[in-house]
């Protein structure tokens, strides 16, 4: 019986950005890959970020020059790979002399401009604020401006999973790895999902379980973790738009930390993040009152519009699994990644991923494949830097794409066309190619979400629940009423039943 179990070159545990990045890179090099995720793709840390592709200006203070250089270069690479979900953004840092002198900020921005290759993004400059037109308090009269990028973090994960699948990888969501052990020179991996238990075998096992990386080693593999993991909670609040314009603010605080205020989904401002030790269950992370007060205080110290807790539209929290460098300050714990390769038995390898950040996921994956190259002589070379992610293929202009959507779909509202353009890019035609009128899009659940799009997300993007669709695939959850959510859930249940009947038939 054992010989009937499929043997993969690689089984990846974890459907966050690092897991899908490694799976995608490996599949593109000709390896057979299976990825399993116990929940939905990007359902934990990877969808709870500040939604930035950035070099990490504050990491310069901690002398993390290698990480910053790599991240700065990756901004340009990722902007070319996925311009529909990643866009340039200017950041304004109000100058507060008692926190950091101007010369120090200018020096940091000089390095920021020149450490990494910069072709598409503008350099830094000093700015003056008008007391009348500035959203900041009148006493804040000048600052500095520089470039980074904003990203739809969850969609970045989904697009990498889609590309991995299209390159031959098998992606299983809501599938937990119960255990894995070495037998006869390969890994025997036991999986469980709603269909029951199954077994697959693999030459290499990749542990990209994020906050559970050490726990997976100890409990599921019965091995000692080579590194300690610091779980650092980061929380964000979403409030009604604080100011006009499309620029973000990076605010310094008396504790030497920084907090972003970022334009979000046209009508909101995203404020975060925090840094505090987390000791609980990573499956259940919620913003604390202390974090709420902290973020409100930082915002109110800078902006004329004064916020209270009643202004918070939504909040979210995530746990960053950082490699323990024994720093006393959670903000100073390294954001760099560490890859641990262990030869367990003969030619059987185990690769565990500690730390990392959204911006450097592609380089992390390349580094992982470099370490694993001795185990796969037939493995092809690097390829991801120039490869477009799904939706970026044949994408000439986002403005032209939006115009084409509006021209083809009669009576479609502008906001929906805008959302589709930035969420799906050229892949929007996968569910619109035969549609010419809004009436042909099927049931309308509200806020421009139609059955045609929902069916596509279920069929091609692993969506199962209303939260998968509203929180991670479309970001429409901020506008949906509870009654509409329930209608969508009922539709998804009936859709799942129809698909099961079709499979049985």
From TrEMBL:
Catalysed reactions listed for this entry: a quinone + sn-glycerol 3-phosphate = dihydroxyacetone phosphate + a quinol
Cofactor(s) it depends on: FAD
GO molecular function, one term: glycerol-3-phosphate dehydrogenase (quinone) activity
Residues in FAD dependent oxidoreductase domain copies: 9-326
Entry GO terms, CC: glycerol-3-phosphate dehydrogenase (FAD) complex
Keyword Oxidoreductase tagged: yes
GO BP annotations listed: glycerol-3-phosphate catabolic process
Pfam families reported in the protein's UniProt record: DAO (PF01266), DAO_C (PF16901)
Keyword Oxidoreductase carried by entry: yes
EC number: 1.1.5.3
Residues covered by the Alpha-glycerophosphate oxidase C-terminal domain: 384-490
Keywords: FAD, Flavoprotein, Oxidoreductase
Family of the protein in this entry: Belongs to the FAD-dependent glycerol-3-phosphate dehydrogenase family.
PANTHER family: GLYCEROL-3-PHOSPHATE DEHYDROGENASE (PTHR11985), GLYCEROL-3-PHOSPHATE DEHYDROGENASE, MITOCHONDRIAL (PTHR11985:SF15)
Protein name, per record: Glycerol-3-phosphate dehydrogenase
